[in-house]
Amino acid sequence: MSTLEPVTSIPQATVARLPLYLRALHQVAEAGNPTVSSAGLAAAAGVNPAKVRKDLSYLGSYGMRGIGYDVATLTQQISASLGLERGWGVALVGVGRLGQALTNYAGFANRGFAIKAVFDSATDQVGTKVGPLTVQHVNELPQVVAAQKIAIGIIATPAEAAQDVCDQLIAAGVTSILNFAPCVLFVPKGVDLRKVDLAIELQILSYHEHHKTLPDRGTRLAPRRRRGSSVPSRRTRAISGALPTRTTRTKAVDE
Amino acid sequence: MSTLEPVTSIPQATVARLPLYLRALHQVAEAGNPTVSSAGLAAAAGVNPAKVRKDLSYLGSYGMRGIGYDVATLTQQISASLGLERGWGVALVGVGRLGQALTNYAGFANRGFAIKAVFDSATDQVGTKVGPLTVQHVNELPQVVAAQKIAIGIIATPAEAAQDVCDQLIAAGVTSILNFAPCVLFVPKGVDLRKVDLAIELQILSYHEHHKTLPDRGTRLAPRRRRGSSVPSRRTRAISGALPTRTTRTKAVDE
DNA sequence: TCAACTTTGTGCATCCGTTCACAAGGGGCT
DNA sequence: AGCCCCTTGTGAACGGATGCACAAAGTTGA
Fold first, then answer.
1. Fewer CB within 10 A of the terminal residue: chain A, N end or C end?
2. Structural domain tally of chain B?
3. Is residue B225 helix, strand or coil?
4. Confidence bin at A151 (pLDDT 50/70/90)
5. Chain B hits for A247, Cβ within 8 Å
């Protein structure tokens, strides 16, 4: 493993989990544990311990054998890898109820994302305050975004307006977009796009719910153990007390 | 392929895309096309045509060779498979800004999800109206949810309250949960859980953004073509005009 | 009726992600 | 010092998902 450069193509799946570990690490830190084992972190993040170790190995970070990971160090390494140490300016378009909720969402500011400007096309919205920000007309978007060198955009408009807004954001220099509008967006190469469709999540739940109540056995697959061996009768005692043996975790479908 | 029973264990990845196809089909229908090819649908849904065909084949649905898929039929089949034909009652807990936005989100009602009750623990929220609904105290949750046989719950509380609320929902009979609180929830087997963490999405974007501006080449991998053969020089003319040749789609990371 | 064309359905190879299982490394107690 | 135990890091097997490429099937037009 290359120990010096932490920039060695981290798998997508791992990148998607790093924020999870970060969240878990904060819990562990608040519990007062200076170190945490992969098992402890796994429990707090709701994943498999081996996955944690493999994921963290991509960062080139060192755990201490026999001990675990230093919470402070690991927190800092993950933050660095995610690029959270510098703050990011964010522009949000669409100040409907969802847009307002997002603008005020504390979880963004906590992680270094500062919403710098909010836009809408409805003239009666323009000029009103959303939190500390004044809603600007979407016509202003190009200048404002370009002038402030904002790199991240959030789209919370109706689907009809989304592609248009998207194009404008990109023209103004935005290179990462989080889309809440329920539609497919097309972006040029070099621009990253992620989407959150609230209704889709419910529909996926609906599928599983539907097939639970179905006459014949639904699609559910039993957690079948692969090799007959090794049900670890001894429960690994984690350093942190954060092993919530509550109940089994569900197969939360993707991600 | 089993043509008669459409209930033959659909892969997770496919289930997650079905709502996407449904959305695309509505677009196509509004455009007035009675049929659509896999290529047309793929373009509208932002995925690969082969994937569309394979996905749809799991439903046991028939496309018509030489023609494509009948839009109305396919819409109905996907809806049926997702269990969207009957409506679902939904309980929402946590009437903060996000909770309010979700309660009023039109996309839910459109797809057959009716929010039947909203709860909060803040006494000054209780009794206020959110849309047509009156906020009830979370103490009422067990009775209300059980009495109305609500199967789906949405958690939009702060992280600290989430596990507690989750347990109560399950005790009251909910078997599918959509969690917006930024924390890991543990649920017993048989209960399905999906999560949406808004901050995590931004952090993933941050990672890519960060590595774009890095001195050496970032993590981006070129779209390298596998076999040297067959760049289809002829553009497949879809029946629907919905082939938006705009720009290349990004590698929207997961999902 | 027949030929050319369109589009589906799917076998297959490949890739990515997951998880097991184990060797190697360190810490601490005696 | 030496032993034991804990934990990391990773090789390797496995399974699921993706996407190509092609045969089968049906349509259209002459």
1. N
2. 2
3. coil
4. very high
5. 186-189
Mind listing the pLDDT tens digit for each residue in B76-95? 999 999 999 999 999 999 99
Would an 8 Å CB–CB cutoff place A124 in contact with chain B? no
Q: Which of residues 25-64 of A touch B (CB under 8 A)?
A: 44-46
Residue A132 and residue A57 share a domain: no
Same domain for B75 and B166? Answer: no
Chain A CA closest to residue B175? A209
CA distance A152 to B49: 30
Co-location of B111 and B162 in the same domain:
yes
Q: Looking at the structure, tell me whether residues B98 and B191 fall in a common domain.
A: yes
Residue A53: domain span:
12-82
A 101-130 residues, CB < 7 A, strand D: none
Confidence at A9, pLDDT banded by 50, 70, 90: confident
Per residue in B162-176, pLDDT (tens digit) is 999 999 999 999 999
pLDDT digits (tens, 9 = 90+) for A51-86: 999 999 999 978 999 999 999 999 999 999 999 999
- Secondary structure, 3-state, A113-151: EEEEEEEECCCCCCCCEECCEEEEEHHHHHHHHHHCCCC
Do A95 and A39 fall into the same domain? no
Mutation to test the A interface, candidates B169, B194, B197, most A Cβ within 10 Å: B194
Domain co-membership, A67 together with A155: no
Residues 196-255 of B with CB under 7 A from strand D: 226-227, 229-230
- Tell me phi and psi for residue A129, to 5 degrees: -95, 140
**Which residue matches tokens 């190009």?**
A142
